[in-house]
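Record format v2
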Amino acid sequence: MIISTIDELGKYEGQEVTVRGWVYNTRSIGKIWFLIFRDGTGLLQCVVVKAEVDSLTFDLEGTLTQESSVKVTGLVRKEPRATGGYELTVKNITVVQIADEYPISPKEHGTAFLMDNRHLWIRSKKQNAILRVRHQIIKAARDFFDNNGFTLVDSPMFTANAVEGTSNLFEVDYFDRSAYLTQSGQLYGEASAMALGKIYVFGPTFRAEKSKTRRHLTEFWMLEPEIAYCDLDENMDWAEKLVGYIVQQCIGKCKREFEVLERDLSKLEAIVPPFPRITYDEAADILKKAGADFEYGNDLGATDETIIGENFDKPVMIHRWPADVKAFYMKRDPNNNELALGVDMIAPEGFGEIIGGGQREDDYDTLVNRIQHHDLPLKPFKWYLDLRKYGSVPHSGFGLGLERVVAWITGTQHIRECIPFPRTMSRLEP
RNA sequence: UCCGGAGUAGCUCAAUGGUAGAGCGGGUGACUGUUAAUCACUAGGUUGGGGGUUCAAGUCCCUCCUCCGGAGCCA
């Protein structure tokens, strides 16, 4: 007996195979009925003809409910009338479980309801496709780092100190002392880069900000490379190479998913390095010309990012920011002490900031001053300062927000559909 | 925290202050090529909670709750 998945079915044309999965839908027209069947790799139409099966199998039409689990055996035939191009003429159906009435019907639903049923929603075509592209993005990123001499380093989730001292963190009880869920693996990434040269951290990060927008989660995944002997310009080289590679890999390997998602691939095909690089000052000019309500010296707002992004058909990197709006660890521009050597990458099509990073301050005394200037306690940073005492070197890195990249590449308007089980202010279940 | 929007059947939504409805989903039946099939019949409601005005409130007023997305902050 041949067992196949739907995506491999073409290999077995003319043969009898068994597929194992779930009922997506049934349609009956009397002495023939159609079983639309899914197995996680695709959809398959199975035809049950009264004259060709025993009555027990034929009568299952009245029994099978949406999402009932079944094994179907039948003959694989090429069939242009069926979606997917192949069809199964059923010989036998084995029922594994008859599902209760399924909450998600094949009609429109509101997102609140669908999020309440996220554990079931991920079975649907579109959500399935998004999760597959997410997988491909992660795989491409890891392949990229692996191919370029980076070592994966896992940073701790529990930390004693806030990285930047700005964000609200989740505080947890840690054996009668306070600890925080990490908002970034960067500081540990820097230590690891001094040990291994080129590293990347990949893991979940946590922000307790009361953000309620389509771009925010309280728990999200970040890819954070950190590179020793690397300045801002080289950092931008790595950022554009990484993003370019991820996009091209997805285009090559997720054709079916993009079809389901109705993604305009021409927009993605344009994502080839080099990406445009503009200074903060140049970005401010663009905003001024566009008539945006923007004050020089401030960070960019969400609409500002969209305006900038619309000026380019590739991701755009904005570098050399007013130091006041950036974190304490950013190195100042040697040509202008008011500017920090930071870089943000803005995705096209209004998807906003997907990368933030820069060159790190590598001088011990300067860094001590910055920490004090930001009213941060020195003690928890002692180990971090050690990195500037024992063989300090110029180094840079960045953090890529995985879900935002998934949203952009899949063309999904809301970030909560870009992670299997999103955590937001109001959602801890499912 | 601020601004705006929304809570009515399992779901998506209607309903001049005057008997709460439709489509989908569910159930029963018809149909040999359906594509979110079609057709007939059928069950299904404490209109988010509390208070008020009124002969009469889903509808008007007050209050609370929840959710949504936008700002801020950020990836």
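Chain A has a mean pLDDT of 91.
Chain A has two domains: 2-97, 118-418.
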